[in-house]
Structures are given as structure tokens and as C-alpha cells.
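hi! just following up on the protien thing from before. the input was this:
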Amino acid sequence: MRLTGLLLGAAAVVTLAGCGSGGHTESVPPTATGSLERLAAEVKCKPNMQTDADEIRQALCRNGDGRFILATFATDRGQREWINDAKDYGGHYLVGRKWVAVGDGGVVEALRGTLGGDLEEGADHHAHSG
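and the predicted 3d structure came back as:
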């Protein structure tokens, strides 16, 4: 799928902050819905659009919590395929209905406090031992 090419650039941005530890156990609000712009407004970021296509809209964002990628999808299947491919590159994922936010663990935890959603982890490339 041609979305895989987008992942390489996205993975580079995601890894700029390294691993973080959240530890936030506050109550999670109901999962947000809406356009990329609406989700970005909720977390107080002005999206820097990277991809604006029918099947995916993807932007780089920055707010007081840090840098992250915010993407919205036309279909549930497209979203799941994107996430499954992206997880090979590691990272922390906040997943909602037809949207995903990707970034450092602390950033994703903070976003969850506003957007709700489910946390998912990518491959842990630091776990290899020899």
C-alpha cells in the first residue's frame, strides 16, 4: 500500500523524542471524533499538513506537551493497516475512531487526557540483548 512510504517520514519524526514514561492514571475522557483540524484544536496545536489525500490526512503538531503526528483516515481498515505498518518502527500510539496520534510516551499520555482513545505500543527496538 502506498501509505507505507508515508510511514518512513512519520517514524523519523516520532523517534525524535526517545522513550518517555507516562505514569498518568487519571480518568480518560470519551474518545474524541472529528476532522484533523478539530482534533488539533482540542489539543491546542496548529497542524502542519504533510499529507492531504482522500484516504489519509497527516500533520505534524506541536503543543505544550511536545511534538507528535496526528493522522485521520477515511476507513477503519486504512487506519489499522497504517498502524500495523507503523508499529514496526516503534513509538507510542493513541488510537481513536479513524484517527491516531503518534509521539513520545509522555506526549501521547498527555494527549489522551484530552482526546481519550486507546494506547498502543510499537516495536521496542531497545529491548534487544546480546
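Strands lie at 48-52, 56-63, 66-73, 92-96, 99-103, 118-121.
The helical segments are 3-14, 36-42, 76-86, 105-115.
cheers
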